[in-house]
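Thread: Newbie trying to understand structure tokens

Hi all, I'm a second-year student working on a class project, and my supervisor (Dr. K.) asked me to get a predicted structure for one chain before our next meeting. I've only ever worked with sequences, so writing a 3D structure as a token string is new to me. If someone could post the tokens and maybe explain what I'm looking at, I'd be very grateful. Here's the chain:
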Amino acid sequence: MDTREKLEVALENELLAVSEYAELANNVTDQTLRAVLISIMGDKYGHARTLAALLINGS
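---
Reply by user tm_fold:
Sure, no problem. This is what the structure looks like when written as tokens:
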């Protein structure tokens, strides 16, 4: 697997994680836990944006 393919897989994983954290956040009642999950989701989204930019600029 070359670097581009690894970046593509990493991007897919980050986007999956965003979705999973969103689902978790929507299903918890504890507001502190919900805030933490939303924060992690934001981090994952930021990672996805960075990876997407690397893929776009590296093509």
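A couple of things are worth pointing out once you decode it. Residues 31-57 form the longest helix (27 residues). Residues 3-57 form one domain. Feel free to ask follow-ups in this thread.
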